[in-house]
Amino acid sequence: MQTELSITALILEASIVVQLVMLLLLAFSVVGWMMIFQRAKVIKSAAQEALKFEDRFWSGVDLTRLFQEVSARAQNASGMEKLFHAGFKEFARLRNNQGLNQQQVLDASYRAMRVVHSRELDGLENNLSFLATIGSISPYVGLFGTVWGIMNAFIGLGAVQQATLAMVAPGIAEALIATAMGLFAAIPAVIAYNRFTYRVEKVDNQYLNFMDELMAILQRQGSAKKAGAEA
Predict the structure, then answer these.
(1) Which residue, 96, 147, 182, 192, is most buried by CB atoms nearer than 10 A?
(2) Which whole number is the average pLDDT over 65-89?
(3) ∠ CA 31-35-40 to the nearest 5 degrees?
(4) For residues 39 and 59, what is the distance between their CA atoms, to the nearest angstrom?
């Protein structure tokens, strides 16, 4: 309990510059943790929804029926559902166009999915750059507070005839608290950023693999229809 009181007293008695540094680092930490919890929820949900839709997609359901199901809940569709909806909608719209060959139809479907893919990836990566910023600058902000506090401590020593450890210790201690707060803000942000980047990459690979698989299926459907028409 005494340690907590001592730390609190050091913070309250610190110079205004060091206090502002500590306040800024506290804000970084709070915002960082808010982003960590929010991003964790979004990315986890995206990965689970992707697996769920893939199971439905490979269950043997007719693609036209699946398209209708996704269209009915288009406003609440998951990322992979949006990819499927965009690609199949464009394919269904253009496949009966006599002025386009099969490859042109497939290319248009793939472009439609790429637009949605880019939008969904941006949504998953939202705020990750800010986490990286918190992780990279917080130690330096804390170091600035430390340097300022130690500088003030030594300036104070110049005004006395005899310096003692008791005189310089509080100033150095309050300065080191700024460094500790900088690390406290930075370490979770760096860990979360690296973890989320890895998880977003995994979800992105799921999306890209699904797009390739859907294109292969649409290509087979187009070839089968063409063969039936020629027969």
Answers:
(1) 182
(2) 89
(3) 155
(4) 30
Distance of CA 198 to the CA centre of its chain: 10
pLDDT at 203 over 80: yes
Which pLDDT belongs to residue 226?
56
CA separation for the pair 181, 70 (Å, rounded): 48
Average pLDDT, whole number, for the chain?
A: 85
Q: What tokens appear for 205 in the block?
A: 């690979």
* Cα separation, 46 vs 62, whole angstroms: 24
Token pair recorded at residue 95: 């496949």
The answer to whether residues 13 and 140 touch, using CB atoms and an 8 Å cutoff, is no
CA angle 89, 111, 88 (to 5 degrees): 20
Q: Per residue in 117-157, pLDDT tens?
A: 999 999 999 889 999 999 999 999 999 888 888 887 777 66
For the entire predicted model, the pTM comes to 0.81
SS (H, E, C) the chain: CHHHHHHHHHHHHCCHHHHHHHHHHHHHHHHHHHHHHHHHHHHHHHHHHHHHHHHHHCCCCCHHHHHHHHHHCHHHCCHHHHHHHHHHHHHHHHCCCCCCCHHHHHHHHHHHHHHHHHHHHHHHHCCHHHHHHHHHHHHHHHHHHHHHHHHHHHHHHCCCCCCCHHHHHHHHHHHHHHHHHHHHHHHHHHHHHHHHHHHHHHHHHHHHHHHHHHHHHHHHHHHHHHHHHHC
For the chain, give every domain's residue range: 2-230
